[in-house]
Design goal:
Helix 8 crosses helix 9 and helix 14 packs across helix 22. This protein folds into 2 domains: 135 residues, no CATH class; 273 residues, Neurolysin, domain 3 (Orthogonal Bundle), CATH 1.10.1370. The protein has 24 helices and 4 strands. The longest helix is centred in the last third of the chain and has 38 residues. The protein is globular and about 75 Å long. 65% of the residues lie in helices and 2% in strands. With 567 residues, it is mostly helical.
Length: 567
């Protein structure tokens, strides 16, 4: 997105707020003004840092215990943090400095930009903020404590995934799939209220809806994203149709039905966002005989990014009341990074722990001499790119040979299957992300439309999966990203594009390395050194587009993803 277009959106937002932009000619911010800005930032951080750390720890407790008390404490702290950014005089002051320009110190200028965006996001009435935070926390509490049922018996997400990946009986699969969607019905009405509250806040700031607001304040451009997703749609439409036809033939045989009789519960994942493990060789076989946590620990140590301290603070195994999926979490900006998982020794959780530790090392290895406000990833999708780069290794035959000590026979067997799964996963993920991107944009454009039908129209169009017969329910709402990461999902796809661009860059840099380490990305500390220097250490000193060009030598492009997985 160009700076000019981004600035135009901010101008319109400020005008809607009734705040003068002071765009008269000026000579920039003088030395006294820069000193005052530095003092403003210092005072702001002194208030923000302890509140943010306390709020982060409260959420960690909530996610790991599911208690109402911890959710309530997190909600109260969130409100206090948002109140820091509400002062209209502070916002006008930051706006005036930003319009004046002339701050040559890149760190001071970047902190001003980040503060300006943070204040803009919160120039809405406190009561509206309170309603958003309370509704958000209410939904998360219900979601984290909800357990679907099969014939009256509660089941965990791990139970559901086990059934969907191993059960041959179609009826039992259907029961498990429907159990995975039950939480959607429990939270859908509250979620739609939350969407409307977010839209109300965005419109007060001069934006069409919350989706447009999120992109602008994330330094992204809707037209640019549309171009990228249109390119990906065109590049994957025919390859995916061929892949899906081949997949359906195998699944139909496995479940003793005709291909046209396949339903969503036949695809091994509640949202068909992961490749069904249909090959005769089951990759889980190789992970069942290891400890995926220890494999991940050994791998990261081998590339010079040790994670022992992260794992020591983490919560890794399933239990009642705990958040049922996985995430990486930064408790402070001083190195307290941890992950939450619900590990099993299988390929899915091998990929997940590699992925979450990718997020974690990004945050752990920020340069802590940088200012507090710059100790975050350059963008949410740059940290996704790192996580995806490492998560992909769980199906990399060369990586599996090195990390799992595969015999040559096993390696030969895995090599073809792993490549097939990886390519299938990537083309499948493009189609799945197209569903999420278009649905969420339309969700915020008109939350009163028939969202249940809209969801299945997009699933049928992009994933070629037919909707179940009977009444269409709100199973789409069981995708928690709509609550905890609104208008975010497109960043996963951008992350995949950047991960392939990183892969291309590292292959060039490791050209002289032994083929074994170059193919497997194991045992070479230059890999960790490159990530640490080029990606992790700068934090958010540079905008995401500048960071990518500095690290890889060119702007973000789909070219290397298409070359790696589609062509």
């Amino acid at each position: 997105m160009t700076h000019r277009r981004y600035y135009g959106l901010i101008v319109r937002a400020a005008t809607a707020l009734g705040v003068p932009l002071l765009l008269t000619a000026c000579n920039g911010v003088d030395a006294t003004g820069r000193a005052r800005l530095a003092e403003f930032i210092q005072n702001h951080v002194a208030q923000l840092e302890p509140l943010e750390t306390e709020a982060n720890l409260a959420y960690w407790e909530a996610a790991t215990t599911g208690t109402s008390e911890s959710y309530g404490r997190h909600k109260d702290l969130q409100l206090r943090i948002r109140q820091l950014y509400q002062n209209p005089r502070d916002f006008a002051y930051l706006q005036r400095l930003r319009a004046a320009g002339g701050i040559e110190d890149p760190r001071l200028a970047r902190q001003l930009e980040l503060l300006y965006i943070a204040y803009l996001r919160n120039q809405i009435p406190l009561e509206l903020i309170r309603q958003i935070v309370e509704r958000d926390n209410k939904i998360q509490e219900v979601y984290n404590n909800f357990r679907g049922t099969i014939e009256g018996e509660p089941v965990t997400n791990s139970d559901i995934y086990r059934i969907l990946t191993t059960e041959s009986d179609s009826h039992k699969r259907q029961l498990a799939w429907r159990a995975s969607k039950q939480v959607g019905g429990a939270i859908a009405s509250d979620l739609i209220v939350l969407v409307k509250l977010r839209n109300q806040a965005a419109r007060r700031l001069g934006f069409a809806d919350f989706h447009a607001f999120s992109l602008a304040t994330g330094e992204q451009d809707a037209a640019e994203l549309d171009r990228i997703f249109d390119q990906l749609d065109e590049a994957t439409r025919e390859p995916f149709a061929r892949y899906k036809q081949e997949l359906d033939a195998v699944l139909a045989k496995n479940y003793a039905v005709a291909p046209e009789e396949l339903w969503p519960w036949h695809y091994h994942d509640p949202f068909f966002q992961r490749t069904p493990l249909i090959e005769e060789l089951d990759l889980d076989t190789y992970y069942r005989r290891c400890d995926v946590k220890e494999v991940a620990r050994s791998f990261y140590a081998g590339i010079g990014l040790p994670v022992d301290d992260i794992l020591a603070r983490s919560d890794l195994y399933d239990r009642q009341g705990k958040y049922p999926h996985a995430f990486s979490y930064t408790a402070d900006r001083k190195g307290d990074v941890r992950i939450l998982c619900n590990l099993n020794n299988d390929e899915r959780w091998m990929e997940t722990i590699l992925h979450e530790l990718g997020h974690a090392v990004y945050s752990k290895y920020h340069d802590r001499t940088e200012p507090f406000l710059l100790r975050e990833p350059a963008h949410s999708f740059t940290t996704e790119a790192v996580a995806m780069f490492f998560g992909r290794l769980s199906r990399n035959a060369a990586w599996m040979r090195r990390m799992l000590s595969l015999s040559e026979t096993d390696y030969a067997a895995v090599r073809g299957v792993g490549g097939t799964y990886t390519r299938g996963q990537q083309v499948l993920f493009v189609r799945w992300t197209l569903v999420m991107y278009h649905f969420e944009r339309q969700l915020y454009a008109d939350p009163d439309q028939d969202l249940n039908s809209l969801w299945w129209e997009l699933v049928e169009r992009y994933q070629l999966v037919r909707r179940p017969s009977g009444a269409v329910d709100a199973g789409w709402a069981s995708k928690l990203h709509f609550v905890v990461a609104p208008c975010y999902y497109h960043n996963y796809m951008l992350g995949e594009l950047l991960a392939s661009q990183m892969h291309h860059t590292l292959q060039e840099r490791l050209r002289e390395a032994p083929a074994a380490s170059r193919d497997s990305y194991t045992g070479d500390e230059r890999i960790g050194q490159w990530f640490q220097k080029e990606i992790f250490a700068p934090g958010t000193l540079y905008r995401w587009d500048e960071l990518i060009e500095r690290a890889t030598g060119e702007p973000l492009t789909p070219r290397y993803f298409v070359q790696q997985f589609i062509q």
